[in-house]
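Service request form, structural biology core

Requester: graduate student, group of Dr. S.
Request type: structure prediction, single chain
Budget code: on file
Notes: please return the result as structure tokens.

Sequence provided:
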Amino acid sequence: MDPKDETTPNGVEDKKNSPSSPETFEAETDHQVTFEEFLELAGTNGIWNYVLLILVYLAGIPSAFTFVSYQFVGATPDYWCHVQELLDANWTDQQIVDLAIPRTADGKLDGCLQRDYNYSLAASLGYEAVKENLNLITNVVNGTVSCPKRDFNHTQYKSTLVTEFDLVCERRALYSTTSSITQLGMLFASLFVGYITNVFGKRRFVLTCFTLAIIFGGITPFSPSIGMFIMCKFFMALFDMSAYLSNYVLLLELSSKSQRSYVGPLSGLAWSIGQMLLPGVAYLVREWKYLQLALTAPYLYTLVYFWILPESPRWLILQGRYKEVINLLKKIARWNKRTLPSDDKLNKMLHHLNLKTDDSDQAEANLRFWQRGINQLKDLFQTKKKTIQTFILFFCWFVTAFVYYGVSLNGTNIGSSEYWYMFFGGLVEIPSTILLWPLVLYVGRRISLIGSFFLAALSLLGSLGVQANSSWATVLSLAGKFAISSAFTLVYLLAAELNTTKARTLAVGISSVVARFGSISSPYVNDLIGAKNPTATSTMFGVTAFVAGLLSIILPETRKATLPESRADIEKMSSGTEMTNEGSSQNHQVNGTSGV
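Core staff response, request fulfilled:
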């Protein structure tokens, strides 16, 4: 269309001749439109869109509670061996610790050992007498022995998961499992969510997942064993991440091209707010069972999804369920106060949209579940360039999760208060998210990702030059988290934008699977390597971030591209050719959303 036909002589847009106006479609019966033009009929910038945006974003708050709360639910206070003989003699905790518990080279209690004394005799003699002459209770071989049971300091925490199930010393691995199991749940969600939503749609799947997350969250505080607790946390993480991945892709599919520049980046705000709220809730609620219930309660708001969460219109179109698409469009239009063409015109447009998708769509719809999954997986490796891009993106996902969770869980190692470190860790993510919005809009996704990785590397490697346990170590660690948080948002966005509709959810899912290996690894890096050499953790996190930044240079830019729908679009994007509405290889297919 000639530009002069789109505006009045004064340069003002002519609504009647706009491609998305009902009048144009009524006048041009055979007009073939892209999906974004079709969606724009009901509006992509109205009340309905922002209500949906807020409701989906808010799920990030309880999600953060689920995945990073173990430091508070499973807080580890000071502990020491349980010496029953001295307790029966009414010795105070301080007296027991002073007599029976050895200390490490840095002066900390070694709560897994006790001195090899005759405690029955010590109890009968009394504390003062024993302290005057330790030889009275010393055995021939003066050393230390392990103890099967511990006592805990309940000054700060009335009860925690650690004190409830004695998760220290030889049982410490179980404590680590309470954290890693949530990442394992995320991994399983990432494996299967793409396949399931491509078969059953996103709405039913999200509603089911949040309902089950509420159920398991309510059961968790009443776990009679640590095994039961771990199982409940696994399912909570599984269902939370399944819903999150589905919602994320759904939002992108319902957004215009320009909106995707902030819908993706701003999705992390609620997660950041959740991290900031978490230490406040944990400070007020010092009993782990009540704390777990308090952290699960926010999931209840997702029940409103039963009334407002839509099905993916792209998925409905691919299923040939045009009546449901039209009903959804009418609902959106009512909220946004827009006028739609007649049902006949909408139905005709939908048929045009469907006829212009890839020729293999109908044949693929008849394949078995696993066959469709294999075909969608092949879409990630269509050409040599696409394969290279896919593996680079996988590596970037691994690094972002590895560094993000490694830095997030490193507060204790650098000597910071767990409350303040968690709060500021969430706080720095907010400017990271807000600043990312104009960057991806005007600078682009690729340059923003490269810069985020390099800034994270600079901050973390720079911390090697400052004194451990100093305020500068904390500042540089948080600066690293600021940068890697941006990278985490960007890899989500790129995984969605570099793949077709059929493979989009699967691509985000598999990428998240790769990321889980990073997040599962990071606690072991902190606990095992960091305990022996604190600088080694920053070195590993910084070096991997630097390598990811170098590899990101190879990725294509998607800032001005529509969401690809076919293999031809993928090839065009991989070659570096800009895919706008006018320049798309298949302009009249079910296309990505356009700008408003």
